[in-house]
UniProtKB/TrEMBL annotation:
<dbReference type="InterPro" id="IPR043428">
    <property type="entry name" value="LivM-like"/>
</dbReference>
<protein>
    <submittedName>
        <fullName>Branched-chain amino acid ABC transporter permease</fullName>
    </submittedName>
</protein>
<feature type="transmembrane region" description="Helical">
    <location>
        <begin position="31"/>
        <end position="50"/>
    </location>
</feature>
<keyword id="KW-0472">Membrane</keyword>
<keyword id="KW-0812">Transmembrane</keyword>
<dbReference type="Pfam" id="PF02653">
    <property type="entry name" value="BPD_transp_2"/>
</dbReference>
<keyword id="KW-1133">Transmembrane helix</keyword>
<feature type="transmembrane region" description="Helical">
    <location>
        <begin position="225"/>
        <end position="249"/>
    </location>
</feature>
<dbReference type="GO" id="GO:0015658">
    <property type="term" value="F:branched-chain amino acid transmembrane transporter activity"/>
</dbReference>
<feature type="region of interest" description="Disordered">
    <location>
        <begin position="347"/>
        <end position="374"/>
    </location>
</feature>
<feature type="transmembrane region" description="Helical">
    <location>
        <begin position="7"/>
        <end position="25"/>
    </location>
</feature>
<feature type="transmembrane region" description="Helical">
    <location>
        <begin position="175"/>
        <end position="194"/>
    </location>
</feature>
<keyword id="KW-1003">Cell membrane</keyword>
<feature type="transmembrane region" description="Helical">
    <location>
        <begin position="113"/>
        <end position="131"/>
    </location>
</feature>
<feature type="transmembrane region" description="Helical">
    <location>
        <begin position="261"/>
        <end position="289"/>
    </location>
</feature>
<feature type="transmembrane region" description="Helical">
    <location>
        <begin position="87"/>
        <end position="106"/>
    </location>
</feature>
<feature type="transmembrane region" description="Helical">
    <location>
        <begin position="57"/>
        <end position="75"/>
    </location>
</feature>
Length: 374
């Protein structure tokens, strides 16, 4: 039993070491897939806290991703204040939280499908602003993203030149470790929130708002707080996406992106940090892999050709749409719940404790005093 206490920390350290190896062995394509997946995982964790833990339906996650991405680009760029990039990234996350706070009165009073429709309006409003506010967003063509610099160290290809163990570190290699650090921060803060008193209050809201109110939970306050926290996670994901893409355009932050994030948390498992991560990797990596290997897949058309078949992006949407149907039918708690049940089946059962021999157990008649008859 004493050794099991160190099993999870040892596994976490081993996983962290394994995740540090890809920049030394994989090319830029695979590292970009990893970066996009890590950024999506950060945003999916935030949406899982909102929809899976607090029980609030949101279709506006793409709006808060755009606030983070464009907030960093404008704050650190020219035109713009031209702030230090580290400060601009921090303020962009806060800006996404402020945007969530401005919407939180609606989130505190509206629920269910009505909240979903209200957040849907955010996506269309945000897309319109991104197209029309040319001085801030660059309009339809978007804006180039200033590279991040921390303490004189730039996350670009040659600022400064860096070689580790004989491997030249370009932008992707450097951003890989930044993404891992940000995801580690997201993982531990989200899991800590779920295990804390506010996390239990949010779970109580999901199960029954009436029961939560009877137990003393301020329903409107916690619903609003969940929206703010989720928006800040989305803003952080938007900053990392902007750094990975190196250019932000309005069409990326559309309703389809919000639907993708809903697919991530449904496939992975609502209310689970690990499940949201698995769903984000699946939904993000699948279209990129299908685009790369389109010429080797049946019924999938190679991008840029006139051949018959379905485009890789559309084919990927069909596949994870089918995955959602299968998950809802056979594993409603998602991949995380499925993995938990598999682990429970594989775990060796404890042998029942041996009972002492019957002859050593005193019987009731042996200790009962004799009755004296008159």
């Amino acid at each position: 039993m004493s050794d099991r206490r160190y099993l999870k920390p040892a596994a976490a350290v081993a996983l962290a070491l394994v995740l540090c190896l890809p920049p030394f062995y994989l090319d830029a394509f695979w590292l970009r897939i990893g970066l996009f997946s890590v950024a999506a995982a950060i945003g999916a964790v935030g949406l899982s806290l909102l929809s899976g833990t607090a029980g609030q339906l949101s279709l506006g996650h793409a709006f808060f991703l755009a606030v983070g991405a464009y907030g960093y680009t404008w704050l650190a760029g020219d035109p713009g204040p031209g702030l230090p990039t580290a400060l601009a990234a921090f303020l962009a996350v806060l800006l996404a939280g402020v945007a969530g706070g401005l919407f939180s009165p609606v989130a505190g009073r509206v629920r269910g499908i009505y909240l979903g429709v209200a957040t849907l309006a955010l996506v269309f409003l945000g897309h319109h602003l991104l197209l029309t506010a040319d001085s801030v967003t660059g309009g339809f063509n978007g804006r180039s993203v200033p590279p991040l610099t921390l303490g004189g160290f730039g996350f670009t290809a040659d600022d400064p030149e860096l070689t580790v163990l004989g491997v030249p570190f370009g932008a992707e290699e450097r951003l890989w470790f930044l993404g891992l650090a940000l995801f580690g921060l997201t993982w531990f803060t989200a899991r800590g929130l779920l295990r804390s008193r506010p996390g239990r209050a949010l779970a109580a809201l999901r199960d029954s708002e009436t029961a939560a109110a009877v137990m003393g939970v301020d329903v409107a306050r916690y619903r609003s707080a969940a929206f703010v926290v989720s928006s800040m996670y989305a803003g952080l994901a938007g900053v990392l996406l902007a750094l990975a893409f190196r250019r932000v355009v309005p069409d990326y932050f559309s309703l389809a992106l919000s639907v993708d994030y809903l697919a991530m948390i449904v496939i992975g498992g609502l209310g689970s940090v690990a499940g949201a991560t698995a769903g984000a990797v699946f939904v993000t990596a699948l279209p990129l892999l299908m685009t790369r290997y389109a010429d080797q897949l049946p019924l999938v058309a190679t991008p840029g050709t006139d051949g018959g078949g379905v485009g890789p992006t559309e084919a990927a949407r069909y596949l994870y749409g089918a995955a959602i149907v299968v998950i809802l039918l056979y594993a409603p708690d998602g991949l995380h719940g499925l993995a938990r049940r598999v682990r429970a089946r594989l775990r060796p059962r404890r042998a029942p404790a041996e009972q002492p021999p019957a002859s050593t157990v005193p019987s009731a008649t042996a200790v009962r005093p004799k009755e004296h008859t008159p």
